[in-house]
Amino acid sequence: MTTVVITQPMLFPWPGFFEQLALADVYVYLDDAQFSKGSFTNRVQVKVGDQVKWMTIPLAGGGTYKPIMDLDATAVDWRTTHQSLLKQSLAGASHAQDAIDILSKSYEREKLCDALIQSIELSAAYIGIGKSRKITHSSELDIPGSSWKRVLDIVLSLGGTRYLTGHGAARYMDHEAFEASGVSVEYMDYSLTPWPQGDTAFTPYVSILNLIGHAGRDAHQYLKPRTTPWREFLAKQAP
Question: Over the stretch 184-204, which tens digit does the pLDDT of each residue have?
Fold first, then answer.
């Protein structure tokens, strides 16, 4: 069985994403997808005390109608702003400097899309997950199309027999078409495992940098990847 995971590049995603990444034999960065305003491509939530704040990369022209790989940031010094916000977020955390170093190293990449990818790859390497997975980019595959049909064609081109996805795909996925092509579809069953976040109420829906800052190299212990077959998942979603 070859498990394929396909997602758009994102800025230091939440730990649930890394549970998904940990299960991938082949991981595809959907870098030629059109940027969607309000997505997690250029922003992520960070925890500051009992508040949750957005850490956002401001985009030139708002990123309108551009593929992710062609996005540019504005000239505003967002790197310094992000570092200050992260330091504030992780004040008192045992491994705060490790998280800050990962952020700084990711932001050394001049091209924005490369920085987004680095934010994932450096975090994954620190945690110690996905070391053996094959990595590719949709822009390198030369596979046309859109929506679920393109996803299926990408999976098949990579020899995939299992496609693992997040919950949003349920809105558009033709699950039967995947099965007819010999590809099973499973959805993530995010564990939402609590990790220490100081004296404040726990929330899992923040950047992986929060988990790294508080748990350090033990961060992987809080990632417990689980999946649900698509029929079972849809049945649970039904009213």
Answer: 999 999 999 999 998 889 999
**β-strand 26-29 against 3-7: which pairing, if any?**
parallel
Burial of 234 (0-12, 13-18, 19+ CB in 10 A): middle
Q: Which domain holds residue 146?
A: 3-237
Q: How far apart are CA 176 and CA 84, in angstroms?
A: 48
H-run or E-run covering 122: helix 112-127
- Cα 83 to its chain centre, rounded Å, is 20
**b/e burial code for range 107-120 (CB count within 10 A of at least 16 → b):** beeeebbbbbbbbb
Cα gap 169→148, rounded to integer Å = 8
What's the CA angle centered on 130, arms 160 and 233, to 5 degrees?
55
Return the pLDDT at 78: 96
| Interval 141-168 mean pLDDT | 96
Q: Which residue has the tokens 């001049």?
A: 110
Is residue 103 within 8 Å of 82, Cβ to Cβ? yes
For the residues of 85-99, what is the DSSP string, one character each?
Answer: HHHHHTTT-TTHHHH
User: Is the pLDDT assigned to residue 238 strictly greater than 80?
Assistant: no
Count of structural domains, the chain: 1
Structure tokens at 179: 């099965």
Whole-structure pTM value:
0.96
CA angle 15, 21, 27 (to 5 degrees): 145
Three-state DSSP class for residue 74: coil
